[in-house]
Specification:
Length: 324
Amino acid sequence: TQFLYGIETSVSKYGEFFETLEFQGEIIPGQNGLAVIETPQAGKIASLDVLVGQVVRKGQVIATIEQSIDAATQLNMLTQFNSLTEEVKAAKIQYERLKSIADITSKRELLEAESRYRVARKNLELIRQNLSSGPGNRIKIKLTAPIDGVVGAFSYSTGSMVDSGEALFNITNLNRVMVAVQVDASDVESIENAKMITIRSEDGSATGVLKKVSAGQSVSDVNQTHRYLFEIRKQQGVFKLGQKVIVSSTQSKSSGELITPNQAVVEVNGKPAYFVKDGPEAFHIEYINGIRNNGAETIVAGAKQGDRIVSVGSYEMKAMFLNQ
């Protein structure tokens, strides 16, 4: 029967055991890992220069917004234009008068007059540009990417009207993500004294090694857990923002324990257990109280050194045991 079902055993032995604790984590944006581009003014989208999923560089133009100046704003700008025109005239007259008597006036007064005249001209030029910025007094504002990354999904098209402060695009950089982990107070020591902290996605498609960035600077007001932040230093595969992940903390202390591969342990009647071979076609079950494993091996309490523990075919053994 053992060979028919492919059941194999391994000999329990003492070995170094590095206990591992697992925590639930979430992928969040890192520094310069997420940017939300909003419209600074209400207006119309004059052009869209990117596509969904396109890779963009920092400073690249991604859209142009055409702002229409309403009548009240235009009247206010005309009033400012007239006021600044008179200011320029007065400043010019004062500056030229002081220049003509430079031999009897102080240098300080001459410099102040020159500065006033220069500033007044600049302000007037700004108002003039705004009043003549295109057909129908429309100001065009170019929106640029603040970070390198990939453009997310958006639902706008050229000609769409947008309000001030409305979010148009998300740009994400998955090379700069972090991991947020909620740790119980009783497990803080295991995080602080960990030999290594690793991460993996729930389906195992992405893995990585973590470096602690923030050591629980805040505590949740819901369950009083400590919030740790980690940076992914080495990774295989791609982690996505908002993805739920498993963080493993491997302890730095080891101890000589009787260990067996994790695949030897199965759940029987709601309890972790393993099967021991006593002889040909003869097996018995051992239950584990207070199971401890490190992701690869489990401490088999109650076993003796040299016991032949079923390491391959544990589920077949479980089925035969339950059908007795």
